[in-house]
Design goal:
Blueprint (H helix, E strand, L loop, with lengths): L1 H6 L2 H31 L4 H33 L2 H9 L3 H14 L12 H13 L3 H16 L3 E6 L5 E3 L2 H25 L2 E4 L2 E4 L4 H23 L5 H22 L1
Antiparallel strand pairs: 1-2, 3-4
Helix pairs in contact: 2-4, 3-4, 3-10, 5-6, 9-10
């Protein structure tokens, strides 16, 4: 707990909070400039205000999922560091998965305040930061070339009318990220399924069954959101599906934990 007290110290809040404030100020500067640029090119001010209000409204509930991530990680990593990671460049699914993997790599049975050490936190924080910086680094050198390729036609994909299709790198990026995420989730679920052993014709679960049960509840909740989206043609529900699934899964974890 001494390590956790240091991770929640005023110095950590000052360092992490200063970076968050700096990023928030930069966002506000770009927002003001975008608004002024919109007026300069003749976009209706009323429409821009409606877009701003709609964007702010629809950002509230999805941000609940980020808040839940901060709360979940703050118990073992302190509040300032998860707050910084998930406020600036971190992703909810990335931070939790990498933190767990890093904790296991330094010999912790699980990510918790009781097992946390100064060296363990240093390794976890370094890995969480190092693995996600490459998008920014690569954009410095390849951003212009990548952007230009988004508008280049592919000669071998000419349509019958003579027009050429554009190279859809965005679709490839979405597929690659989805495949990577499925791989990560599969690896973690398999680690718990691997704790099922057979003997005398019976299957015995030697590990903790709660993570598997919560994963099933979360998957069912997400499937429910997708079903509502398809049946009701409600594309807006995508903005709330992750946060909603997390809330349902965390509620299920509380009740199932009491049963166990």
């Amino acid at each position: 707990m001494e390590v956790l007290a240091k991770l929640n110290s005023p110095v950590m809040y000052l360092i992490c909070g200063g970076i968050v404030v700096l990023v928030a100020v930069i966002c506000m500067i770009f927002a003001v400039r975008a608004y002024r640029a919109g007026k300069a090119i003749g976009i209706d001010v009323g429409k821009m205000k409606r877009v701003i209000i709609a964007s702010a409204t629809f950002a509230v509930l999805p941000s609940v999922g980020i808040l839940l991530g901060v709360i979940a990680l703050s118990g073992s990593l302190g509040t300032p560091w998860p707050w910084l990671r998930l406020s600036v460049i971190g992703a909810l699914h990335y931070e939790t998965q990498v933190a767990e993997a890093a904790a296991e790599s330094v010999g912790m049975e699980k990510l918790s305040a009781a097992n946390m050490t100064a060296s363990g936190f240093s390794t976890i924080a370094l890995l969480m930061s190092f693995c996600i910086i490459w998008g920014m680094v690569l954009m410095i050198f390849n951003g212009k070339a990548y952007s230009s390729k988004l508008t280049l036609p592919k000669p071998e994909t000419a349509e019958p009318n003579g027009k050429k299709k554009k190279l859809d790198l965005k679709a490839f990026g979405d597929i690659a990220m989805t495949a990577m995420f499925i791989g990560l989730v599969s690896a973690y679920i398999a680690s718990y399924i691997g704790q099922i052993v057979s003997g005398n014709g019976l299957f015995t679960f030697t590990g903790d069954w709660l993570p598997l049960a919560v994963a099933c509840v979360s998957a069912l909740a997400m499937a429910g959101f997708l079903l509502i989206k398809e049946k009701a043609k409600a594309d807006w529900i995508d903005s709330f599906s992750i946060a909603g699934s997390m809330l349902i899964a965390m509620t299920a974890a509380i009740f199932l934990g009491r049963l166990g």
